[in-house]
Amino acid sequence: MADMRLIVAGAGGRMGRTLVRVISETPGAVLTGALEAPGSELLGKDAGVLAGLPENGVKLSADLWALSASADAIIDFTIPGATIANVAIAAERGLVHIIGTTGLSVSDMAVIKSVTSRAVVVQSGNMSLGVNLLAALVKRVAQSLDESFDIEIVEMHHKAKIDAPSGTAFLLGEAAAAGRGVDLHARSARGRDGE
């Protein structure tokens, strides 16, 4: 079986560098592209070196179209605007698009959903197994408790956190709303909305 050829979007960021390291340690996976924002001072740098590894020959690029010619999938933990820009190219090129970007708006999610009839997209506000199991439990509990019970999600982060509520809070909120059969955005009240 051939190796899964992967592009990491946001390869110069904290999560991107972690993904580059994980891919380098994963049998059956190979990093073939490293995407970074246009104008970034990291463009042209070696993705391996940025991730604290030996040089791997994969240079950071801002050209997803060119990178996608030799890839099977893109792993995208960037910012909403970058993710939405990547969605159309990934779909057109037939890439599996794994989206871990948080802070996506309702309209961003509509754009993502619009390509799912012709492309494989895996999207979650939190990729951890534990949190996704928790979301399944939250949905079941919300189904079991009637409207006389309020559901609250309280989280704490540093005040510079860009996406508030977090992707995890939205994931759990969506699970609770699905359990209750209501629309989260129509029924939620938030104490803070970050960018």
Poorly predicted regions? none
Major sheet details:
6 strands, parallel
Distance separating the two termini:
42 Å
Secondary structure class reads alpha/beta
Chain-wise SSE layout:
Elements lengths: L3 E6 L4 H12 L3 E7 L11 H4 L9 E2 L2 H4 L5 E4 L3 H14 L2 E4 L6 H9 L6 E3 L5 H16 L22 H14 L3 H4 L8
Helix pairs in contact: 6-7
Pfam family, one: DapB_N
Protein name: 4-hydroxy-tetrahydrodipicolinate reductase
Pathway: Amino-acid biosynthesis; L-lysine biosynthesis via DAP pathway; (S)-tetrahydrodipicolinate from L-aspartate: step 4/4
Describe what this molecule looks like in 3D.
It is built from eight helices and six strands. It is an alpha/beta fold and 195 residues long. The chain folds into two domains: 120 residues, Rossmann fold; 59 residues, Dihydrodipicolinate Reductase, domain 2 (2-Layer Sandwich). Strand 4, helix 4 and strand 5 form a beta-alpha-beta unit. Helix 6 runs parallel beside helix 7. The chain is elongated, with a radius of gyration of 18 Å. Keywords: Amino-acid biosynthesis, Cytoplasm, Diaminopimelate biosynthesis, Lysine biosynthesis, NAD, NADP, Oxidoreductase. Pathway: Amino-acid biosynthesis; L-lysine biosynthesis via DAP pathway; (S)-tetrahydrodipicolinate from L-aspartate: step 4/4.
Q: How would you describe this structure in keywords?
A:
195 residues, alpha/beta, Rossmann fold, 6-stranded parallel sheet, 8 helices, DapB_N, DapB_C
